[in-house]
Design goal:
Two copies of one chain form a homodimer.
Chain A lengths: L7 H7 L7 H21 L3 H17 L6 H8 L2 H9 L38 E10 L9 E6 L20 E5 L5 E7 L4 E2 L5 H8 L5 E2 L2 E7 L6 E7 L18 E2 L2 E3 L2 H7 L5 E5 L2 E3 L7
Helix pairs in contact in A: 1-2
Chain lengths: 291, 291
């Protein structure tokens, strides 16, 4: 009954002792301990606490069917990336690392043939991406599905510009060939900012941070009997490559998108010179190797 | 660039190094460290993380002009009480402890004369509350303002039942007399549950907790030159006195609401026997004693 700052975490934690589900109990009690430790460290005034309540409320109010401000908040606080990283920690070294899914995998990518272009608009820098899907022992994985999606050369996804981009622009669902290979044509993607007109924009401004993500192409690669991976190929010479505002860059995912001037090479890939060429190999871990 | 679970808190914390305001930087960096420590401890799956995002979103959506679900969430997690406790820690021992304001101090209490009743409906157990406002040295504080509000004998505040309770029922703004004394009549308040039809109700159910608050009368006492106090007088024999769902009970605030059968005593206070009698003295700390 004697609530004190010293005992508050213990008192509130004990109130969850009778939680019916052990996992719910574990999470609620850990939440209580860490939340109270945070409050005891920063000692918010009641006025600051009211600002925090208002901030969370407005973040909820900013969420709609097509915008998820709490995911964005989790992203810029590095929490999404931490959860993703912890969930793939059981994979042995050698598998392609995962990174964030992001908010734009909301529509099904159209099935395309190897070599097809996913750029239905044109106008940017042509780009060719090739790669090979293998297991951690180096064996090719034929008939893997390679789901790709990306922003265009101005930094916008198709779903953000339904009036000017055709549906499925920048998206493709490919199947690897008998040797586990895939290849497709696209346009070089552009770095882009997160939406800053809501509470997350306020937080970035208060934190002295920019809202940009470096240029990247999203991948989800799946092969039967293997752990699938949700990841990005980052454009190595993109702006913001060292300061992705959602912390999703990993060294192994930074890929050289080389400039190629040779017209013969361009013709071989079905593009015009100069173009960018990237090789992105993906390594999946067999499920039965799981710890 | 190499984001790992071990380094995540440092990496994200460093991203706030350029925050323009030092307090914002301190809070954002502490938030980052505690949030990442929580996530690393519980290791949520992506599916659990999605449930957490959904929970926060629905909590925001439940907030309206008249309902504040994030305050309720802060309350049941003991955070509101912790902030309140930390903010009054500078007060020396002897001053009446503070407790939560609660969500029902939304209207101005009507000015009343000492001895008036704040029960405009009748029907419950009559109740008399008296007390004295003094400073920490025991000197009376005349002309203190004593703002009181409470639920009725069914557990509802006037603002919750505009159709059946007159405006200002259960509320009064009193001024202490020359000896710092106040006294008024009312009805014995009842224990009541927080609203459980929203996300906070889900959390309490998942935590194996009831949603009740023990019976109490709210007070805000102010006197010139002194720290004002926002507090409760809790009814000692109320249900849930040992398990207030918002953790607001403090030993010094648990008051004996004695049953009095003597008709002469009842007549002296302007009520009918049997009635409840409570004495609640309030001690305020002078502002110039502040540390």
């Amino acid at each position: 009954m004697d609530f004190t700052a010293e005992k508050s975490a213990d008192i509130v934690s004990a109130s969850f002792d009778a939680a019916p589900d052990p996992r719910a109990r574990e999470v609620l009690q850990a939440l209580t301990r860490h939340l109270h430790a945070f409050v005891r460290e920063v000692r918010p005034s009641m006025a600051e606490w009211e600002k925090a309540i208002d901030y969370l409320t407005r973040t909820g109010w900013t969420c709609t069917g097509t915008r998820q401000e709490f995911i964005l908040l989790s992203d810029v606080l590095g929490v999404t990336m931490l959860v993703e990283t912890l969930e793939s920690e059981h994979l042995t070294t050698g598998a392609t690392p995962a990174t964030v899914l992001g908010p734009f995998h909301m529509v099904t990518s159209p099935q395309r043939e190897l070599g097809d272009t996913i750029d239905l608009v044109g106008g940017g820098t042509p780009c060719v991406i090739e790669g090979r899907i293998t297991d951690t022992a180096g064996n090719p994985l034929p008939a893997s599905t390679v789901d790709v999606w990306q922003a265009d050369d101005k930094g916008f996804y198709d779903v953000q510009q339904p009036a000017t981009q055709p549906e499925g622009n920048g998206r493709g669902l490919f199947t690897s060939d008998d040797e586990g290979r895939f290849w497709f044509r696209t346009v070089l993607p552009c770095a882009y900012p997160l939406p800053v007109d809501g509470p997350v924009g306020e937080l970035l401004a208060a934190g002295g941070r920019h809202p940009f993500r470096p240029a990247h192409v999203h991948f989800i690669v799946e092969a039967e009997g293997h752990h699938s991976v949700t990841t990005h190929a980052f454009v190595a010479d993109s702006a913001y490559i060292d300061s992705d505002t959602v912390f999703a860059v990993k060294r192994d995912l930074v890929i050289d998108f080389a400039t190629v001037d040779d017209p013969a090479e361009a013709a071989r890939h079905g593009v015009t010179a100069p173009f960018r060429y990237a090789r992105f190999d993906v390594v999946l871990e067999p499920v039965d190797e799981e710890l």
